[in-house]
Amino acid sequence: MKAVNLPHYKLKLRDIAREIFLERGWQMPRGFVNSSERDPFNCTLKEWQQIKRAGHDRKAIQQLFRECWAISDSGKAFAQALKARGYTLARGDRRGYVAVDYRGEVYAIARYAGVHTKQVRDRLGDAAQLPSVEQATQDTTSRMTARLRLLAEQAERTNRLRSAASRFQYTQTIQRQRDEREGLSQAHELRWNAEVTARAQRLSKGFRGIWDRLTGKYAELKNQNEREALLALRRDRDEKDALIFRQIEERGALQRRIRDERSAASLEVMRLHGDIAAFMERSKAAPNLREQFTWAICQRRDRRRSRERDFEPEI
Q1: Over the chain (315 residues), what is each successive 10-residue block's mean pLDDT?
Q2: 259 strand-pairing partners
Q3: pTM over 0.70
Q4: What is the bridge-based pairing of β-strands 88-91 and 106-108?
């Protein structure tokens, strides 16, 4: 008879229901599609970083394809479901239907969706209407390059704004520290003047002062005032040194934080440009090995015939 709190129980029930639909092969409602997958073409910078960190294993990809297959009732719906997850439906060379992700990896629909090839052909229709793997890869690469360029521009713009804010904060910190030192100097001056006046009032004047000099009391008060003045001078110097050291530590911490932020921002922009360069390199057409081989054979044959003509006997 104890009440147990079950946090996020609706999400857990949804996951269990999704697994039951996949195990039974039932038509899955569209609301059961896994929302944790992100389309890299519509992602933000943080989501792109998460996509690169997370990666995908075989089981996760199989579950994704099975979910897309379960919620679709036609080839167009299946293509849209894959597109929402960053995959492009294409026509394979040996396999009739494949999917291409943003990295250019090719996945067989029947194998990863866990269905027969005939079922895939019946639902998706004629594969000739689909783009080839090369076309899908080129389209995906161009879209990813444009998206990454936009993310790089946004990151650079954010870095410029952050740098301006950091410079303003650094300037404000310097001005505040100057005001603190100026305020401490004024406070020291006021206190020093008040203490000097108080020490001066201890010394008597007139006949009382002459009597204090004769009795030695004047010398004692003078020595006491000198000791107190020396202690007050050391006290003010220690307070000023403590303030300066504290301000140096504060400014050093601020400089280190700004430097680390700039380094991290520059590294992130460099990584985005590296990703752009990788996609642009991937977008280059692969060399046609058959044509190169044929050209090399022809060149070799021509050289052999030329040598044979050179050694033919003259008649």
Answers
A1: 77 75 64 54 57 59 81 83 81 78 80 84 82 81 76 81 88 93 93 89 82 83 88 92 93 90 80 70 53 58 59 45
A2: none
A3: no
A4: unpaired
